Amino acid sequence: MLPKRVALPVFASDPLSSVAYATQEILLVLTLGGLAYLYLAPWAAAAVVVLLAVVVVSYRQVVRAYPSGGGSYAVASRNLGPGAGLVVASALMVDYVMTVAVSVAAGVDNIISAVPALGPYRVAVNLGFVALLTAMNLRGVRESGRLFAVPAYLFIAGVLSMVVIGLLQTAFGHPPVAESAGWQIHAEPGEAGLTGLALALLALRAFASGCTALTGVEAISNGVPAFKPPKSRNAATTMAVMGGLSISMFAGITALALIADVRYAEDTCQLVGFPGDCATGSQRTVIAQLAAAVFGGTDTVMFFFIQAATALVLILAANTAFNGFPMLAAILAEHRYLPRQLHTRGDRLAFSNGIIILAVVAGTLIYAFDGSVTRLVQLYILGVFTSFTLSQIGMVRHWNRELESATDPAQRQQFHRSRAINAVGGCLTALVLVVVLATKFTHGAYLVVIAMPVLFAMMRGIRRHYDRVARELQPKPGGIVLPHRTHAVVLVSQLHQPTLRALGYAKVTRPDTLTALTADVSEQEVSALRAEWEERRIPVPLTVMSSPYRDITGPVLEYIARLHREHPQDLIAVYIPEYVVGHWWEHLLHNQSALRLKARLLFQRGVMVTSVPWQLDSSDRAAAREAEAHAGSPGAGSKVG
Fold it and tell me: Which residues pair with 571 in a beta bridge?
């Protein structure tokens, strides 16, 4: 059970850390038209602050209504139906992937701001952090309160100190000046001289970019059970503190950025006065420029402190997705919307398959978008606001049901107030969702618009498959149905120990008929086999199938199919003699016909396939080595002779 002071950094590292790049994204969009439009930044930031406050207050109602840790998926599923729940699940899965990609990329940006020499290796450093997080989670390393608390509180203390000191410097007549304050910006073609609708769209696009400050706000509602009692009250209080800190840091960073005249552009060649080669050089992040301006340069202790704390909290924010995504995937797999393998824990009790999938997809996005936070952000907030909106609409329906059964006037008044809060939150987030879709669609959000329906359709298809299989596997009335007769067929390539064991095993099962079957791939080999068969007086008839194309699989399948047609109510048991080897390289030296036959025979109705193993000495030695090492995984494979 977590106290509030520990739960805050554990669950809120994502929304707290997102303020590190939210202001940067607002400035970047507005400077597309040149410096003249930076006057819109305070308005865009104010709208983000209002929205953040509304969403925090709305999710406090979720926390109170679902003390078991419902989260957006549970709220939508229970109140709007499975379809809405799957839409939210699709959005959350995209959100988790983007959390890893964006947080790691933003963290690396701040590392490069402190150590510019790493700039050419941006993508490699990003992928290295993703690999590190993956390895940590696969090894079963879980976040502890202390692990999250220290970097998060250092980041909060550093940013708030920077904001307070910067504002005090301004009040005393010595405002901080960013290193980019004297630079000019070339407006992009078509973005200069905007008026009317075009200007409104630019402002809305800046607002949509700033909404990245809201990512991860719902995380506390997912983790209510982890709080100390009273769980709901402590979670709601923690969410309020998180909202207050996020708003304070975001507003402070935005105010300082405007005071310090920060200039920021995605393409450094747009910056007039940028030192160095704009084709290869990168600009320092907004928070890095502010730290340098407030604390006296890029070689001060506080500058490196701010950059280290920012990078660390962003990387740890990415790690929350490595816990959330596999858990969500496991829940969906339990509900049969995803493959059941995602519900399986590894030997370290981690959902290994989900962790690997998350890492691969996030790493691919980082590689495809060159580790650019700005390009990745375009894919981010669409999924976030989809889950926000459906969750709030679901909460309105929840309160409607509560009001139907509530009789106490005070309780009804409380429910009415909660419903109004969620209704306002739902309407506002729905409006923002439309704005995000309209302003971000051509800038990359179309990929999310494609990905979410694909995920939705995939999960519905998987559920239909599992339901269909369950119906087919449902036992029929009458209990166990016994076959009329059993026909045993032993596949023979040559007369050796594995063949004799298979014949013996088949015989002791007492089938009604027993046949040894071989294919005539070589007249000389078949003649030798017949002679040895007669010489040893094997008490089983040998049937030879013609194989004009020297193929084994076809003749065997033809014989089995004919036998099944002649005896449709009977069981056909096919025994395949195999021997087990102990080294991986031995697998490459032996015939693979058994694997092909097994794969084909599995599709034959009324046919049972049984492998009869014969262990070679190398497999015995391998088993002995494993026993000595106390290894739990098998080290042998089987091949046909």
Answer: 486
Q: In sequence order, what are the beta bridge partners of 542?
A: 516
The three-state secondary structure class of 267 is coil
Cβ contact 253:290 at 8 Å: yes
* Phi, psi (rounded to 5 degrees) for 68: -80, 0
Alpha-carbon gap, residue 500 to 8, rounded angstroms: 68
- Name the pTM for this structure: 0.79
Rounded CA-CA distance 69/18 in Å is 23
Quote the tokens at residue 54. Answer: 């509304």
Q: How many residues does the chain have?
A: 641
User: Please, are residues 276 and 42 in contact by the beta-carbon 8 Å criterion?
Assistant: no
Q: What averages of pLDDT result for each successive group of 10 residues across the chain (641 residues)?
A: 82 86 88 75 92 91 78 85 91 90 93 90 94 84 62 92 95 91 71 66 86 84 81 89 94 94 80 73 88 92 94 88 83 88 65 88 94 85 88 91 87 90 91 87 85 93 92 79 87 87 91 90 85 89 83 85 89 87 67 74 86 77 64 43 40
d(C-alpha 64, C-alpha 422), whole Å: 12
CB-based contacts of 343: which residues, under 8 Å, 6+ apart? 330, 333, 334, 351
Identity of residue 508? V
DSSP 155-213: HHHHHHHHHHHHHHHHHTT-----TTTT-EEPPPTTTTT--HHHHHHHHHHHHHHHGGG
